[in-house]
Structure formats: structure tokens, C-alpha cells
Write a structure and sequence with these properties.
The chain has helices at residues 4-13, 46-51, 58-69, 95-112, 122-131, 139-142, 164-169, 174-193, and strands at residues 30-31, 37-41, 78-81, 116-120, 147-151, 154-161. It is of the alpha/beta class and 202 residues long. The chain starts with a helix and ends in a 9-residue tail after the last helix.
């Protein structure tokens, strides 16, 4: 089986879709290779493209603050995106780009085997949940609701929430993000104790 670094090396050299022609650096992801919690965004932005690291701009700073608020650091979790190269002008990733790139994410999930996946924004939420058979109408309708899904032989809890960038554009949304992170803290604690009852969250 390939390692996370093997996958990262392939991502950095990838030319499967036209996004490679625009990138400075591909952004495979980073964090604890044995993380119990995995965060999945949509695609790198300008700062991420320059540094080759996920969530290092303003949205990343907010993500770090939210993690800190529930007693976590970036080193304890794994952070990545569905699409590993920056779309031009930070536009939304196209369906075909997600389809082409998502096999890398699937491999990362299979290797890390997280207990909880937090999807940040509509693109990662739609990819993860629709792959598991759910229909996603909008991120606002589904955020803050825990789903249990199966990826291959992995059973994992999925918590959709807003992309941190949304709270930067609309500060009123920050309270929703904070609420979802409090739910994440509660879910993680109960998961560690083997006491999770999904009925409590649905």
C-alpha cells in the first residue's frame, strides 16, 4: 500500500487536469497521519498555492483559532482539500476537476482512517456525502448534522460545516462555525469514550 508521502509526491507531479498549468505548488495536505479527525476543504487559494500547504491564509487562521477553541492543534488533525491545485482566480472547482482529483482524497482517507471527517463548505460536503449515498441540497440545510457513512471498509462520522472563508465574508456566520466546532468537541470526546449515539445529533 502507498504511503501518504507517496500520494503527496504524485500530487505534486500531477498533470491529470489543466489546473497544473496554473499552480505554483500543489497542496497535498498536512497533519497527523494517524489523525482521528480529518478536515476537508474544497481547493487551495493563493496563499496555499504559494506555500504548498492547506489553509494558511485568512481562512486558515480562523480554522486554527476554531481548533484552538476546542483544545486541538493543527498537528493533531489532518487537513486537506478535495482538489489539490488552486483554480484560477480562486473560482469554484469544476465537477470534472473534482472527479479527476478526488481519487487522491479517497486514498488519503483510506490510509488515515479518521473516526470523524469535518467537511468545510459545500463542495467537500457534497463530494463526501453524495459518495455515501446522501443527497445534499445546500450546506446551510445540512451543516451541524452528523452522518455516519461507509468508505470501503471504513465507517466514519461526517460533520458538515461552513468553510471558514464564509465567516470572513459574512461575520454573522462565525457563530454557526463556533457552534459546529463545539459539537465536534462533544462528538470527539464521546467517540473516545465509545459513547456516541447518533440519535442525539440527528
Amino acid at each position: 500500500m502507498r504511503s501518504l508521502e507517496d500520494i503527496a509526491d504524485e500530487i505534486r507531479a500531477c498533470r491529470r487536469c489543466p489546473l497544473w498549468t496554473h499552480r505554483t505548488n500543489a497542496v497535498p495536505g498536512e497533519g497527523n497521519p494517524n489523525a482521528e479527525i480529518m478536515f476537508i476543504g474544497e481547493a487551495p487559494g493563493r496563499n496555499e498555492d504559494l506555500q504548498g500547504r492547506p489553509f494558511v491564509g485568512a481562512a486558515g487562521k480562523l480554522l486554527t483559532e476554531l481548533l484552538s477553541s476546542i483544545g486541538l492543534t493543527r498537528d493533531e488533525v489532518y487537513i486537506t482539500n478535495v482538489v489539490k491545485c488552486r483554480p484560477p482566480n480562486n473560482r469554484d472547482p469544476k465537477k470534472e476537476e473534482i472527479e479527476t482529483c478526488s481519487q487522491y482524497l479517497d486514498e488519503q482517507i483510506a490510509l488515515i482512517k479518521p473516526k470523524i471527517i469535518v467537511t468545510l463548505g459545500r463542495h467537500s460536503t457534497r463530494y463526501i456525502l453524495e459518495k455515501a449515498g446522501y443527497k445534499v441540497k445546500s450546506i446551510m440545510a445540512i451543516r451541524g448534522k452528523v452522518h455516519e457513512v461507509v468508505f470501503g471498509d471504513l465507517r466514519v462520522k461526517v460533520l458538515p460545516t461552513l468553510h471558514p472563508a464564509a465567516a470572513l465574508y459574512n461575520p454573522a456566520l462565525r457563530s454557526l462555525l463556533e457552534k459546529d466546532f463545539q459539537l465536534l468537541m462533544s462528538l470527539a470526546k464521546k467517540k473516545a469514550l465509545g459513547q456516541v449515539s447518533l440519535d442525539e445529533y440527528l
